[in-house]
Amino acid sequence: MSTSYTVSPTAYFKIYLHGVKHPSKPVNGVLLGTASSTATGKLVEIQDAIPLLHHWTSLSPMMEIGLDLAAQHASSENMQIVGYYQASDRIDDTTLAVVGEKVAGRIRKTFPDAIAFVVDGSRFGSGEQCLVPYIFTPSSIWRPASDSSQIAPWTSSSPFQLSDPSTPQKALELVKEQNAHFAFGDFDDHLEDVTIGTPFC
User: Fold this and answer.
1) What is the pLDDT of residues 147-178, one digit of tens each?
2) Is 165 part of any domain?
3) Is 53 exposed, middle or buried (0-12, 13-18, 19+ CB in 10 A)?
4) In sequence order, which residues have a C-beta less than 8 Å from that of residue 139 and are 6 or more positions away?
5) What is the pTM of this model?
6) Which of 7, 24, 129, 179 has the CA that lies 20 to 30 A from 170?
7) How far apart are alpha carbons 32 and 75 in whole angstroms?
């Protein structure tokens, strides 16, 4: 059975704003959602994202605490952690980092259809979709979906879809017209300044 994925505007906006706020730093977080069966396979609906770190992006105690809190929050919202996302400190780097492979692999132990997204920072100002999906292959490695035998990501017949196709343009408008990224905070931000709201709500 095949697995398809949809990304909600809420999840996309958070990933996008996280990357835009820290364009010269690596950032990461986790994806929350639900899974259901369809006539053709499984559907994973990515409904939210939890922005975790922009300083301690390795497998640090802060990462462990963040993952635990994210799992608790997901459970309280009747969701689960279904994937991982990251952006590099280089806007043209769309490689899933080693730490990303490890975190995504850990998520996959409790959610076998886990997905990983790497943000293509070169598309931040374009209004185009900027997520590069990575899938876990039968050869036990994470690789870009576009390098697999699957249909290229984000086309009309792709297993990867935005629930609202206008989301990337709306995300760009949030930055250009409202400076929404300045008000955005991740777990690192909250640890440094508790007046910045926690991302777990």
Assistant:
1) 554 556 788 788 999 999 999 999 999 999 99
2) yes
3) buried
4) none
5) 0.90
6) 24
7) 10
- What is the C-alpha separation between 134 and 58, in angstroms, rounded? 19
* Structural domains in the chain (count): 1
Q: What is the CATH number of the domain that holds 26?
A: 3.40.140.10
Structure tokens at 22: 């820290």
- Residue tagged 């952690």 (tokens): 81
CA–CA distance, 47 with 60 (Å, rounded to integer): 26
State the residue range of the domain holding 81.
Answer: 3-192
Rounded to an integer, what distance in angstroms lies between the CA atom of residue 190 and that of residue 157?
40
Could you tell me the two tokens for 82?
């279904």
Query: Looking at residue 155, what is its pLDDT?
Result: 80
- 125 falls within a domain: yes
Cβ pair 81, 74 in contact under 8 A: yes
How many angstroms separate the CA atoms of 92 and 27, rounded?
14
Per the domain annotation, does 199 fall within a domain? no
In a domain, 29, yes or no: yes
